[in-house]
Amino acid sequence: MAERRSSIHGQWSSKFVFILAATGSAVGLGNIWKFPYITGDNGGGAFVLVYLLCILVIGIPIMMAEVMLGRRGRQSPINTMATLAREAGASPYWKWIGWMGVIAGFLILSYYSVIAGWALAYVFRAASGAFTGVGGEEVQGMFSRLVSDPERLLAWHTLFMVMTTVVVARGVRGGLEKAVRILMPLLFAILVILVGYAMNTGHFEQGLQFLFRPDFGKLSADGVLVAMGHAFFTLSLGMGAIMVYGSYLPEKASIAGTTLTIALLDTLVAILAAVAIFPIVFANGLEPGAGPGLIFQTMPIAFGQMPGGILFGTLFFMLLVFAAWTSAISLIEPAVAWLVENHGYRRFTAAMLVGGLSWCLGLLTVFSFNLLENFMPLGFLGAFHDKTFFALFDYVTANIMLPLGGLLIAIFAGWALKREHSVDELRLGDGLVYRSWYFLIRYVTPVAVGLVFLDITGLLDIGGLLGFLFQGPWQA
Ligand code: TRP
Question: What is the pTM of this model?
Answer without folding.
Answer: 0.95
